[in-house]
Each structure stands twice: as C-alpha cells, then as structure tokens.
Amino acid sequence: MKYTSPQDRIQQLLIRWVLVLVPTLLIGFITLRFLNFSYTSLNTSIGLQTLYFGLGLVVAYSLYFYGARWLITIIILWLVYWLFEKIINRLPGEFDVFYTTAKFQLYSTLFIFGWAFGFLLARVRWAYAILFGLLSVVTLVSISDTIDVSLSYILSRIAPVVVYGLYMLFLTPILVNRIELNPKKSAWLVVRVALFALLILLAFAITESLMKGNLKAVEKELAARGAKGDKDGGSKKGDDYDDRNGLMDKTDDGYRLKDTMWVNSKMSQSDKLMFCSKLDNYFPDGSPAPLYFVYHYLTRYDPVKETFTRDINVPSFDEIDVDPTKIPMYYSYTDTSIIRKSKGLKFRRIVEAQVYLSENTWKHSVLGPASVFSIQTIPVEKDFQKTFISGYKITSFASELNNAYFVYNISANPKLEPLQEQRHDELRDVNGYQKTDPRFVEYYTKIPTGGIYDSISKLASSLVSKDAKPVDKVIAVRDFFLQRNENGKRVFRYTLKAGAVDDPNIPSSRMLYDFLFKTHAGYCTYYAGASLFMLRSLGVPTRFTTGFATINRSDKNKGWYWFYASQAHAWTQVYFPGYGWLDFDMTIGNEDQQSAPKPDGTPPLPPPEPWLVLNAKAETVNVTAKKLDANFNQLIHFNTPYVLNQTFSKPIDASLCRVLINKRDTTFAAIQPGDSIIIVSYKDEAKKIPAPRAGVAIEEQIRSFPTPIIADEIHIHKKEVEKKKENAGKKPTAMQEKKMTWQEIAWLAAKAFGILFILILLLPILYLIYRLARIAFSSTTASKADQVYRAALYRFHMAGFERETETPLEYAQQKIDPTTQAGFEEFMRMYLRLKYSNGTLRDGDESTIRTFQSSVGNTIRKSVGTFRATINYFNIFRALRYFQQPEINSENSSL
Amino acid sequence: MSNSASKLKSLTANIETIIRGKPQEIKYVVTALLSRGHILLEDNPGAGKTVLAKTLAQSISEGAIDFHSANGGVAFKRIQFTPDLLPMDLIGSYIFDEAKKDFVFKKGPLFTHVLLADEINRASPKVQSALLECMAENQISSGDHTFQLDQFFFTIATQNPIEMEGTYPLPTAQLDRFSMKISFGYVSEEVEFDIYSNYLAINNGKNTVKQVLTYQDIIQLQKEAEEVYIHPELVKGIVKIVQGTRQHAEIALGCSTRGGITFIKSLKAWALVNQRDYVIEDDLRALAQPVLHHRLIFRNREASQTALAQIVDKVVNGLAKLGISGKK
Predict the structure, then answer these.
(1) Who contacts A402 (Cβ-Cβ below 8 Å, separation ≥6)?
(2) Min distance B313 CA to chain A CA atoms (Å)
(3) Topology of domain B2-222, per CATH?
C-alpha cells in the first residue's frame, strides 16, 4: 500500500482503528468479562483490564502500522526500563508493594497481550486466525471450568468469538487495499457488514434450534432415568451420570453426594457452603461432641460396575426413607423401627439436631448423624433466608462411640489417642459374630473372590491373627495405613490426584489394588474402599458410608457446625453386636495440605416452639384487615398431631403474622381464597391457646380455642393445579442447568461449530441454486440472458477460472473458451449486444441462450472433471473471492 | 452497415499487407481517422511509424494529388520536422509574382487531407504550435488571410520518445489536441522473421499499395461513426472515469471535458472499426489508454503505469455487474 501523504496515512490508520481495533477491543472486553465471571482471582475492574489491554493493542498497532521494527520495540523497552530505574532510584520503596500485587501482574500481562495482538494485527495478514484460535481455547477452557452450564450459555460465550473470527475473515481482504472514505463506499461497507451480521445470526439461530432438539432428547432421557430412580426410593437417580468431579453431584436442585462410590481422579474442592447444623450432643463437661453426618450407606458390591451401590433391601436397613421437601411445615415424620434396626443399645442416646440447608445441598434426602429416626420441618429465620433455603429438625438414635474424636484418624495426636484407646477398650468386649444373624453377617461380609480380591484378602489376613477381636482387626487395618517406612516417612499418602491410571469413571477394584500395592496414594474413597474390602475379607461386617466429616472449628457457638462441599467424605462403618454400627475413618490426614480454614458463620436463631399448627384451607380473606377464615381438619396441638373427623372453621387474626410462600417471605395479599395454608401460633401465654387436657377429645378442646386465633406464621401452598403448572414451566430450565463436563461441552461446542461450518460450507451451493432459480423464473429473454450470464460467471469462477481484471468478454475469450470450448464468447457477444445496442432481439438469440445455458454444466464437468466440479463448490474462499472487488495492482492490470 | 464493414475490412486488410503484426495499432489509426481526430505515434525510430502513415494515406489516395483538383482522391503530404524548420515552411508564404506584380500566397504542405508530421518533437515549439492550430481549428492564418482547410484533415504525427536527445517535448496542453497517442512497440519474433524474409517486397511496397477507399467513402464512414449508439450506462461510466482521473490521489491533472468528448467520439469510431454499431464495455478498456493517458499528468512514474488502469478497471467491473436495462 502506498500513501500519497502523511494525512492519508493517518486517515488509513484511523479507519483501521475503527474497523479492526474496535472489534478486537470489544472481543477482548467480552472475553475478559467472561473470564472474570469464571475465575475469582481476576476479579478486579473489568474496565481497567480492558483499558490496559486496549492500550497495548492500540499503541502496538499504530507503531507497527507506521513500520516500526523490532529495534524500536527494544528501544522502547529499554526506555521504559531506564525510566523505571530512575524513578525507583528517586523514590525508593514507593513502588515495592505495587510491583508484587496481583493487580500489577494482571495489568502488565494484559498490556503485553494487547501489545502482541496489536503487533500481529498490524503485521501478519491472517493474524486474526491466531487470535481466533487462542480466544476459542480460552473460552472453551473457561466454560469447562464453569459449573452452571447450559446450551444457551455456551452459545452466548462462543458466539462473540465466532462472530469476531468471521468478521475478520470477511474484513481481511478489504484491509489489503487502501480504504477510501466516501459516503457511498461507507454505506456499501455498512450494508455488507449488516448483511454479514444477519447471516451469522441466522446461522446461530438455526444452530440453536437444531441443537435444542438434541438437548431435549438428553433431557427426556434424564427425566426417564430420574423417574425410574424415584421408584427405587429416589436414590438411584443419577446412577449412570457422573460428573467425574468427586463425591459431589450437581443435580437439578443442588449438590448431593454420589450414591455410588466413584473412585475418582479428581475431587471437588469447592468452597460452597452446603449446610449448617446445631447438634445437641455434648460431653458431660459441656464441650461439644461432633458426630459425622451420614447421607447414604453403600452396601452391595456390584460386580458389573465394580463399584458399591446403595441397596435398600438389606437386612436391618437403618436409613430413614423420606423426602423432607414432602413434609408440610412443622409436621414430622418418624420411623421408630429404625431404632430397632440400628441394632445397638449400648452407649446409645437420643440426639437432636437442627439442619439448615443452603441451596447447594440436595434437599430430598435426610442428612444427620446415624441413625436418624424422626424429622420435622422448620422454617428459616428471615435474616438467614439468603444463605439457607430450608431446614429441618432431626432426632437420631446415636452412639456415643461415634463421637468424631473417636473417629478422626489423626495418628499420634496426643489428645485423641487416649480417647480412641478408650473406645477400643470398650469394643474389645466383642469377641465375634457367633450370636449375630448369619444372614446379616453374610451380607455385610460378602466380597468377590479370585485374582486381585484374593491378594487383598491375603494382605488383610497378614496384618492380623485369625482369632483377633473385631476391633483389633479394625485397628490393624488402620495402622496399616498409618505405617511408616524405615526413613520414618509415611507409606500412604493423601492426594486428590489419585487414580488417573485407568478410566477414572470405573472405580475398579483394580484401582484399589493399585492403591494398596503400588501407588499408596488416594483420598477418602480409596481408604474407605480398601478398608471395606480388607475388613470384609477378615469377616467383619462393614459398610461404606458417604456423608460429611464434622469439624469443630471453634467453641464460639457451641454445638454449631458448618459443612462445606470439601467436607464431603467417605468412611466405613463396622458392626459390633450390642453397640450397632460404629464409624471408622481410615483416611489419613493430608500432611501437605495447607488450606485456609473456613470460617464459621453466624448461627440462625432457633425456631420458636409452636403450640398450635393448623393445616387449613383459606375460606375468605380480608386483605385490609389482615383477617381470614380457615377450614381445617388436621392440626398439631402441643406437638401432637391430630386428624379430625369433621372440618372446623375458625377466624384467624393475621395482623402480626409472617406470611411465607415456598419458604420465602411474602405479603399477606398473596393468600388467595382456596389456598392450602398452614397456620402457626407460637408458644405464648398471651395467645391463650389452651394446654391439652388429658382424656378430653380433641374436638372438644378445639371449641375452647380463642376466637380469633392469633397467627404468627402462615405458610401458603398454592393450589395444586398452579403448582403443577409452575413445575412444568420450571423443569426444562432446571434440566438445562445441569453441570456439564468439559468433554460434553467440547462435544456440544464441536457440534455447534460443525453445524455452523456445514452451513457456511453450503453457502456457495445455495448461491448456485439461487442463481439457477433466477434463470428458471426469468420472464423475458433479456432478463433470462442476464441471469444466464451471471450464473455462467459464477459457475466458471467456481470451476477454477477466476476472472481478475479482464472484462467478461476478454475472460470468455482468454480463459474460458480456450480450455472449455464452452462457446462463452459467442454468448458474451450476443449478450453485450443485447445489453448495449438499444436494439431488439434477433432470431438466433434465444436459441443461443438456451444452448449455452444447457451446455455450461457439461463443459465444466468435461474440462475439470465431475468430481472436481462438485468439490469446488465447497471452496468457501473461492466463493468469497467471487464477491470481492478484484484486487487491482500493477502486475495484473493491463490495458 | 455491411457496406461500411466491408470497406473498413478491406482498408485494414490493405494496411496489414504492409504493416505486419500490428492489427491493434492499425485499428487505432483508423479509429482516429473516423472520429475526425488526429493521432500521435510514439516510438523509437524504425518501428514502422512512417510506413504505417504512408500506407494509410496511400490506401485512401492515389498518391500525391493536387489538393484542390482532387476528384475522389485524397491528398497526402509528408513533412519531416527538424529543429530549423520554420512555420512558413508548413503554412506557405507570400511570394512576389513577377507576372501579376503582386504577392501571391504559395500554399505550404499543410494544405492537404492526410498529413504525416514526422518526428514532430524535433521541431521548435513555434512550428509545433502552427501545426496544432490547424489541427484544432481546421484553418490556417497567414497575414490577413485565413484559409479554410478541407473538412477532411487528418494528421498522423510521430515522435521519438522524449528522453532522446534533440527533442522539444510537447506540453500536455498541446498533446490534448491529439485524440489518441499510441506507442508502436516492436513486433514479435515470428513476425519479425516474416518481415525480414519478405523485406524486398516491402521495400517496393509503395508500388503495391492499392487505393481501396475514396474521399467520399471516408466522409461517409465518419458520418456513420457519429451515428454509432452509445448506451447511457456507458456514458455514465465515462463520466466516472473522467471524474475518477480528477479525484485520484496520484494524478495531478485530470482529464478535461474535451478529453471526455473525444473519448466518446473515439469509442464510437472504434465500435465501427470493430464492425459494431454500438459501443460495449470492452471498448472503454481498449481506448482508455490511447485516448486518455496522454492528457493526464501523474505524480510519479509508477502511478502513470497503474492509476488509469485502476480507475478504468473499477468502472468496467461495475458495468460488467450491471444487468440488461441497468439493473444490478
């Protein structure tokens, strides 16, 4: 490119600023914005980040556009260095802190990136291809690191990058020549860009609509699986879909522990708060005694999947089987058979706990210390509704021997060892399982035999004498994991990066074998799984337990515990006759880990004790007076639930009342006649709720209730139909927001790209079809000649005969006819006559058009071959060149 | 049309028997003749410029015939320009007639139909301007008399490239009077071999050149050339080219309106020479260089090779994209 004057050069630079740098800056901004969403470490001002990036970009682009060489770069760098040296010498200590901040590093990195981009854009013609690749990779990586992913999210992230790439692809040929600024030209450019944008949008719309069907199929499948899982007690949902991300699963309504034991290569180390709990379990001296929180037991070995699965048809299954979300507010569900099924009486006590769930936690299963037998739903205090979405109170038949201090496997901890010794001494009373139900023992000691299982058994039996007591066998296994080599180093290590040996999705016994005999490194599921095998092979009934490790971080709020996603845990429970199932955590401490302690939060206020709970239906509602009439036939009176034979009607005074819908506060006006509501009146003498009288029928007692009843809380359950509608509306979005792995994302993105690519690839053919259709639909001979002329130009171009600066006639004479004998020249002469002579048609003209048109395809196929003639239409670059203004330079322009 | 086509064909064929391998240049010369213009041939000595001019003149005349007594014939004069040539050598001068006792005007060689002005740039500017006046005005002034030239006055001037020594380059303003300026160039290897093989015959060429057209024929053809149809879109294209030369960053002096008119005239004649009664887009490309290039002043050498081509290519490409009846 030559510039006539310095002004001209500046003008060209400014035009390029607008055409190249503004979009690049925009894409940089968008990418940075997304990165800021994905990575908290970047989280500084996006504006400043873009500013630094843009500064580098603009300065470098302008410099290199003006022909700066590397020498100048070096001089500038040296100048900057020199300047800094000077400044630092002048102002010692002023900048020391600034240099070490992450902000400085980030901004300088961005500036350098901007500089590099500017250099590439100014100097390398196809630089945008490099940028496009880089941006795609960055975007894909950041998407795969994001948890909430949906198709529209992916598309929204990828779209800007793709648009940028295509825009630059479109723009690059224009940039080679000087760009003249005149209104007509600019308008033309704007129209072209707009058309291009429209085309891209269309392609995206098509892609999304195509992919929607795809996604719906996946949703259906998942839904079907979910339904099947629900039949099995709501537990197997997601058996087959895993996120390869550790013990936590992101489902449609929060995280939950995996039902099956996946021995994974990577574990979730998320800092998300899962729930908090007030556990009323204390030592006699009043200090809190934490208990591990159980989620599910995995008891049955599935030889097909080589993993442990949940099995609800087990002898003495002591897991409470209820969905807390299905229990109405303040109602409770109690299964006293669990007390019997827990098979232990010694050192057992009733422990109560309040559990407040954050939105990250799975709401449909009960979390609590073993063994929960009763659950009551409770509301969350208003101030805590941001953190917690629901709560329940549980009552557990817990063993004192399950105290976490007994369970923590922290060797040589002088505080813990005496405690653990105390527990072991107690358990040494158990000699064996002779008196236990043999069916029970058989079930819980069942493991496969042969091959590696035999090696594990052999290892286990080598640790301990055959007639050792069960507790000693457990201690032997524990000590096996704690052993040190001759140098005093631990043999076994804790690592989250274990098990990438095989396909990490199949947590095979092979991996446990490798863990025990080769790698000696793993995380909780490895230790728990290995001890499960070893203990079972030693004839000790053992089960695999998933849940949360309870950590007492401070005594500030006694009995309150906070549970984060990283506390998700797996351990074993061992059965001791008379004592029941006891927790044993074999996982050794992570000596390398230096994670920052997570803070405890502020505990929510305990819920008030309700004296009266009416499960009612609103009859009439007076919004202004905040009064309503309620019909009810179920109530809880002083914690005793009743179902009445008849329906009672009572006026309710709700003037001081808290109204909630779906556990969220709302206004009184939300209550509609016909809604099912739960009316709660707290323990308060002033409310005049009479105490229960023994021997008097509840119906009699209701009559003595005050009129009106003063309500403290009203929980609205919307009418059934509406609720269903809401659910139906919500479901697809919830499904879409399931977590996707990077493979899925890459696959989805690849598919989206693929469809986009195919669409773009098809454009030249579509244009050919359009041209041929125009021939077919042309009415007059003149317009037909026109269309034949255009179609022929396009077809010859796509066949590889590209017209440069020749006129069409010259093109026909020099390029087409000598090689193809298409008779194009004859047609062109006739066409030019029609076009310019003002004359009328001659006799032969129509037949000339017809013969030429019918022969074009054949002549092209004959001269370049049928295959090439077809394949040429997929050459998108050639098609693009057809629509470009021919490049005019001195070599190929001749008069 | 068919009549004039055959006449033109026989004319070009006749010239081609003498001038080998230069069909395009012959066409240009004929085009200039039919558009009532004048042509300037520029090339190194010995490329065949003079022969072409002579052959053309002989094809339409029966040798040197007296200017006024011509009956159907065409007068042809040749002037070799030299630095010491004076205007009166061209125009003629008043000579004292002993018999009449009066000064009578002795007409110079300019009083002719076809004038071959050889090596025009070797003459002094004074002489050049005398020639250019009669080219532009079709008249000669001497003393108090103004002599009207015949309506058919065609000048073929030749000049050596201006870099050569002993020349007075023609200023652009004067070059403007020539409707076309073409370079001759050397012939290809085969043609050159052909020429050498037959050089004896060529040497005697003046004897073998037949007269194929008459004075009346030329006048007739010139009229026909004026009637050639030029499509309004092409005229728009010409406007764009002319305007383009004025706006182009690397052209210091653009094309004048007279240049544009000459361009249209030449296009029409060119179409006729190519046996068409309408102008097509290709004609713009073919004629832009010979008709327009010498009227422009370029800022640098590179631009003089590419700038005009860029403008014309763009316009012609735009025309190629137009459909019949001007639709896009």
Answers:
(1) A291, A292, A369, A370, A582, A583
(2) 6
(3) Rossmann fold (3.40.50)
Same domain, A616 and A578: no
A319 secondary structure, DSSP code: -
Contact: A805, B289; criterion CB under 8 Å: no
Residue A520 burial by CB count (10 A; 0-12/13-18/19+): exposed, middle or buried? middle
β-sheet bridge partners, residue A395 = A352, A374
Contacts of residue B286 in chain A, CB cutoff 8 Å?
895
Looking at A684, A699, A731, the residue that finishes a domain is: A731
Give the structural domain span for A126: 6-181
Q: Which residue of A has its CA nearest to B301?
A: A890
Any idea which residue has 């091959």 for tokens?
A: A451
CA A65 from centre of chain = 43
User: Tens digit of pLDDT per residue, chain B (328 long)?
Assistant: 567 788 888 888 888 887 778 888 889 989 998 998 899 988 777 777 777 877 887 787 654 444 444 444 577 788 888 888 888 888 888 888 888 888 888 888 888 888 888 888 888 888 888 888 788 888 887 777 788 887 788 888 888 776 667 778 887 777 888 899 988 777 888 888 887 877 766 555 445 677 788 888 888 888 988 989 999 889 999 999 999 999 888 888 888 898 999 999 999 999 999 988 899 988 998 899 899 988 888 888 888 888 888 889 888 888 888 877 655 4
CATH topology of domain B228-326: Helicase, Ruva Protein; domain 3 (1.10.8)
* Shortest Cα–Cα distance, B79 to chain A (Å): 32
Q: Do B308 and A895 touch (CB under 8 A)?
A: yes
Q: What is the dihedral of CA A605, A565, A541, A374, to 10 degrees?
A: 30
Q: Are residues A639 and A683 in the same domain?
A: yes
Omega into A577 within 30° of 0, i.e. cis?
no
Could A808 and B250 be called an inter-chain contact, meaning their C-beta atoms sit closer than 8 Å? no
pLDDT at residue B291, as a whole number: 92
Give residue B3's pLDDT: 78
At B130, the amino acid letter reads A
Q: Report the percent of chain A where pLDDT is more than 90.
A: 0
Please check whether residue A23 is in contact with residue A167, taking contact to mean a CB–CB distance below 8 angstroms.
Answer: yes
Instruction: Tell me which chain B residues have a C-beta less than 8 angstroms from the C-beta of A794.
Output: none
| pTM for this predicted structure | 0.48
Nearest to B309 among A808, A835, A895 (CB): A895
Chain B CB contacts of A886 below 8 Å: 313, 317
To 10 degrees, the CA torsion angle through B129, B131, B134, B139?
100
Task: Tell me the average pLDDT across A191-199.
Answer: 77
List CB contacts (< 8 A) between A809 and chain B.
Answer: 280-282
With CB atoms and an 8 Å threshold, state whether B309 touches A886: no
What's the confidence (pLDDT) of residue A223?
Answer: 47
Q: Do A375 and A279 fall within a single domain?
A: yes
User: Is residue A758 a part of any domain in this protein?
Assistant: yes
Is ipTM beyond 0.90? no
Residues of A in contact with B277 (CB under 8 A): 837
Answer yes or no: do A259 and A306 share one domain: yes
- What are A's interface residues with B at a Cβ cutoff of 8 A? 2, 4-5, 8, 782-783, 785-786, 789-790, 805, 807-810, 832-839, 885-886, 888-890, 893-895
Give span(s): CATH 3.40.50.300, chain B: 2-222
- A835 contacts B285? CB cut-off 8 A: no
Taking the C-alpha atoms of residue A180 and residue A252, their distance in angstroms, rounded to an integer, is: 56
In a domain, A479, yes or no: yes
- Establish if A239 belongs to a structural domain: no
Give the pLDDT confidence score for residue A232 in this predicted structure: 38
Q: Residue A630 falls within a domain, yes or no?
A: yes
Please tell me whether residues A101 and A32 are part of one structural domain: yes
Choose among A807, A834, A837: nearest Cβ to B229.
Answer: A837
Same domain, A632 and A767: no
Total domain count for chain A?
A: 4
**Closest chain B CA to residue A831:** B324
